[in-house]
Amino acid sequence: MRLCAVVTLSSLMIATAYAVPPLETGVSLQLAQWRAQQYRDPRYDLSLHLREGADSLTGRLRLQVTLKHKVDLVLDWRGKALAGLRVNGAPAPIRVEKEHLVVPAKYLRTGKNILEVDFEARVAVSGA
User: Fold this and answer.
1) Which letter does DSSP use for residue 6 in this model?
2) Closest CA to 121 of 83, 70, 69
3) Model confidence over 41-89: pLDDT tens digits?
């Protein structure tokens, strides 16, 4: 009985260490530190399509990132729409929470991962 309690407690401690901190709007210090521990060598490839005078643009993100452990992937997102999410070549559901795109760990693997998603974002007018 005691061994079972120790194993359960150890499993809970490991799961807690890899759990995403509570999400809030923007990027908390806790989230930034957690991502720095979990994600390695992120490489972004962005393709943008902007029409003159348009108030929004469309694009495609291809992200390659290495995960130290099989954990959720949390990306900052304040755009309009996301579509066509693919993770390691397979379709995945889109979940946006408090200005973050969250890809659950079950769609990812330890090691190299490739995420692709189409997006739409507002164009901010600069002053001059």
Assistant:
1) H
2) 83
3) 999 999 999 998 889 999 999 999 999 999 999 988 988 899 999 999 9
DSSP 53: T
Which strand (E) or helix (H) includes residue 11? helix 2-18
Cα–Cα dist 2/60, whole Å? 52
- The dihedrals phi and psi of 61, each to the nearest 5 degrees, come to -110, 135
Please name which of 60, 54, 47, 67 lies closest in space to residue 109, comparing C-alpha atoms.
67
Paired tokens of 101: 């795109």
Query: How far apart are the C-alpha atoms of 37 and 75, rounded to whole Å?
Result: 15
pTM for the whole structure: 0.75
